[in-house]
Amino acid sequence: MKLVQDTASVWDTYMIEGYPFGIEKIDAHDWVVFRLFGSRRVYLRDTGFISKAQAHDYLVPIVENYRSSIITAVVA
User: Fold this and answer.
1) Which of 7, 14, 34, 59 has the fewest C-beta atoms under 10 angstroms from its C-beta?
2) Where are the beta strands (DSSP E) in 1-76?
3) How far apart are CA 63 and CA 35, in angstroms?
4) What is the pLDDT of residues 18-40, one digit of tens each?
5) Domain count along the chain
């Protein structure tokens, strides 16, 4: 999954390209993961991670589950 930097955010924020999930650095060693609902961010854990790589690894199965639940076509 490709991370794309969100330049509109005041934090060091990266979005997963094509999905409403992201990773945000809120302190020197504190990365949090979130999901967007419209313009609102919902953080997925009460605690953060010490690196961007750890946050990304945590987010991968969540995005895969989200991706697998999307219905792409209905055939009648």
Assistant:
1) 7
2) 3-6, 12-16, 21-27, 30-37, 40-43
3) 10
4) 999 999 999 988 999 999 999 89
5) 1
Burial class of residue 29 in the structure, from the number of CB atoms within 10 Å of its CB (0-12 exposed, 13-18 middle, 19+ buried): exposed
Confidence of residue 44 (pLDDT cuts 50, 70, 90): very high
Helix (H) or strand (E) holding 64: helix 52-68
Find, among 67, 54, 53, the residue nearest to 21 by Cα. 67
Measured CA to CA, the distance from residue 46 to residue 49 in angstroms comes to: 10
- Token digits for 23? 């990773």
In a domain, 76, yes or no: no
Domain that holds residue 38: 3-68
Give the three-state DSSP class for 48: coil
Instruction: Give the position of tokens 């961007």.
Output: 52
For the chain, the residue count is 76
